[in-house]
Amino acid sequence: MKKRTEEILKCLDQQYGSDIICYLNHESAWQLLIATILSAQCTDARVNLVTPGLFKRFPTVRAFAEANLQDLEEEIRSTGFYHNKAKNIIACCRALIDRFKGEVPETLEELISLPGVGRKTANVIRGNIYLVPSIVVDTHVKRISKRLGLTKETDPEKIEFDLMKELPEDHWIAWNKQIIMLGRTICKAQSPKCEECFLQGLCVEYLSEKE
């Protein structure tokens, strides 16, 4: 691991701690799976407003598998892209019942075989439910990893593999939480608060702009 990367991780640990925290409210693996599907192009805060009523109306995997498409669309409308999300959730829950006895699988290959589940969603499940070291490349991780100089890629999968090489495995899950927090508070997409950032002396983009 490069010395600069080591310093970045040290600063992040000091600022945010290294505990595993999931920002999507859930009480089971299948609830987190559905919440993560809903979180695409939507904030976690909005998803957390929707899921209490959603999980009360559809309290089991089978209830989702047998849901009426239009009813489900209405429940999740405010998360955006609700037509595709509703179709994927119903198909995903049917696949869970048909192929996995209603349980959420653990392996990456099995997870991404489910409708509506890509690497990002699969890694959320693996890291938060099964505690398998996994890097989730969301919009914050994509933006900030590039600003810090840990990747030059724009494709999420390539960024994931760059970070897997650059970061120690025992920090993969913590990285997700720490970078999301940094992205929400300081290193925003628009008007980042660089002068307030505790990583400014280690940030490739910030230092290059100061030259």
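the 2nd protein, sequnce then structure:
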Amino acid sequence: MLFSEGIWTYVGRTQYATGRLQEARQSLERALALDKDDNLAKLYLGLTVARSGDFSSGLKNIESGMRGLYDWLEYINRSRPFEGYWDPSREIRNAIDNDLAAISGGDYSREQIIPDGEWVGQRMENEIDRARRDERRQFDRDFERRRGFSVGVGIGF
């Protein structure tokens, strides 16, 4: 699994979820200072800024975070075509696609984008756990197939 999330993103998401927006903003900005490609941090920073009253600035980060998550999901599914671990039904990518189209077309509202962004963030959190479970199950199945009786002959030089 190649998805990475820094500790400050995790802290910021938790602070956001508990309504501590100022602390969330600081944590998420710190996460992005450490890893500018942390798309979950971008998404949650955008949500935090938007909920704090600066919707237009927040929207830029929401859009950037969504675009980055979409691109990452596309990449991981193209580079591992036989491992349908990440967003196999395209539910997350379809939702992001719809939101990005609405944003670029100017056909959105604060009442739509913030809950949609929160949904994407929550689904990505759930997807991380689901993908880990699926990968673990596959590893366990592969390991079981390799177990058994075998005879080897070694020749030393």
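The longest helix spans residues 110-146. The mean pLDDT is 87.
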